[in-house]
Amino acid sequence: MAAVDLNAEALGVPRKQLMESSGNAVARACRDLAEPGASVAIVAGRGNNGGDALVAARFLKAYDVTVHLLGRPETISTDIARENWDALVAGEADRRTVTDSAAFDLGDPDLVVDAMLGTGVTGALREPEATAASAINESSAAVLAVDVPSGVDADTGDAAGLAVDADRVVTFHDDKPGLGDLDCEVVVADIGIPEAAELFTGPGDLLALDRDAQSHKGDHGDVLVVGGGPYTGAPALAAQSALRAGADLARIACPEAVSREVQGYSENLIVRGFSGDRLTPEHVPSLLDFADDRDAVVFGPGLGDADESLDAVREFLAAYDGTAVVDADALQVVPEVDTEATLICTPHQGELAKMGGETDADWETRSDLVREFAADLGHTLLVKGAYDVVSDGDAVRVNRTGNPGMTVGGTGDVLAGATGALAAVLPPLDAAAVAAYANGRAGDLAAEAFGGGLVATDLLERLPAALRGDDE
Ligand SMILES: NC(=O)C1=CN([C@@H]2O[C@H](COP(=O)(O)OP(=O)(O)OC[C@H]3O[C@@H](n4cnc5c(N)ncnc54)[C@H](O)[C@@H]3O)[C@@H](O)[C@H]2O)[C@@H](O)CC1
Ligand SMILES: [K+]
């Protein structure tokens, strides 16, 4: 929800506007439950859940409204909730502040609006919320809960202690998993979050990185790039990109014939050569061993399409059971391989066609085709284009960052490497979506400096800023 929120804001629909819609929905639910003139007690917490109900109070002029703010107005935790408290001028509602739970007096209202806590709840209700919840539960009034009954965890439906017993819940945007098992009526209100905020990647997607990457206990990934032979720049770019996208270690396995050249691009890379001048099936057993201890493998950059090399890719994937990003010439063998591995395939339109996938000039039609093909393959696809389409066969995300300057060689290697680093810390769909977004942002930042003359290494330098969500 926080990610969708930030994406909506980037699309010009700020949180305060969403709060106005939620408040309006709460007021509508009040009108459903009580006749004009009825007495309504709004019990508001200091977060945005309370803010929603403070908005509702402005829409309930036909009612006798009392607002009980749990705490002093200075302690309201968000600007938008405080602005809505300030907007309730004297006369519009009877405003009371509850600083001592012993002094809380709910009165005998016809309807109670429980807006103490929403999705921000942590642990058991503290005071004065606990006293207020008891009073609400003892009251004979109808109880309308805002978003979720206070004290209930919206994700699980569990309560760490006391929780409000509501008759009806008006929840926002989407049903919450924890509401299903509650013994009350749940109404989902559309609060006008643009569909684009969920479909298109945006700055909100970067939040996944904070959350999930932290849970990986400081382990930000050990990524192996398998590639090189006919080309040397591609694996070096992919590995450097993995480092810029946050991997702790980036290793390259490439033919000995080119390993010194590949190492020469950067002292940050750990290069291991295998015999000869290209990948062949004889290298696969040791490659599998080497890949076993890595968090993710990026297979394909600069590998070439010699028959022996493609045989090696087939044998590798058939035996591998980790996470791999498959790019470039390696892509064409994916449809024929039966593998336990988790694959993220990063084809451009031409490579997609070679894999047997269909495409279309219209991005919406293309999204459907990509989703169906990902479902057939049983893997995640990131199909590159002016609009990148990401799908795991179920969900679809579309990325619009990037610019025509990025058709220059090497940007695909940068994307593959970044996807590998992110796949070490995020689920495949998120890794692909965040990588596409950040790679495009890095390209946009590079275009500000170099216009159509940008080159792939310019993206490497800008990837960290793009992943932090910096504007420039
Ligand atoms: N896109 C969104 O996420 C939207 C969210 N909205 C509303 O915003 C709510 C979430 O707002 P917030 O994140 O501000 O969180 P809440 O308003 O749910 O709660 C945060 C406040 O509760 C306090 N708190 C937490 N646990 C407590 C406990 N056990 N006992 C006593 N106090 C406790 C915190 O210190 C903080 O002041 C949603 O439930 C919804 O009602 C809406 O405005 C619409 C848009
Ligand atoms: K609530």
UniProtKB/TrEMBL annotation:
EC number(s) on file: 4.2.1.136, 5.1.99.6
Keywords (A to Z) from UniProt: ATP-binding, Isomerase, Lyase, Metal-binding, Multifunctional enzyme, NAD, NADP, Nucleotide-binding, Potassium
Record PROSITE patterns: YJEF_C_3, YJEF_N
Residues that hold (6S)-NADPHX according to the record: 48-52, 118-124, 147, 234, 302, 348, 413
Cofactor note (record): Binds 1 potassium ion per subunit.
Residues that bind K(+): 49, 114, 150
Residue ranges of domain YjeF N-terminal in the record: 1-199
Cofactor: Mg(2+); K(+)
One MF term in the entry's GO annotations: ADP-dependent NAD(P)H-hydrate dehydratase activity
Every YjeF C-terminal domain range: 201-470
InterPro entries per UniProt: CARKD, Nnr, Ribokinase-like, YjeF_N_dom, YjeF_N_dom_sf
Subunit: Homotetramer.
Similarity comment text for this entry: Belongs to the NnrE/AIBP family.
Annotated function: Catalyzes the dehydration of the S-form of NAD(P)HX at the expense of ADP, which is converted to AMP. Together with NAD(P)HX epimerase, which catalyzes the epimerization of the S- and R-forms, the enzyme allows the repair of both epimers of NAD(P)HX, a damaged form of NAD(P)H that is a result of enzymatic or heat-dependent hydration. Bifunctional enzyme that catalyzes the epimerization of the S- and R-forms of NAD(P)HX and the dehydration of the S-form of NAD(P)HX at the expense of ADP, which is converted to AMP. This allows the repair of both epimers of NAD(P)HX, a damaged form of NAD(P)H that is a result of enzymatic or heat-dependent hydration.
The protein's name: Bifunctional NAD(P)H-hydrate repair enzyme
Organism name: Haloferax marisrubri
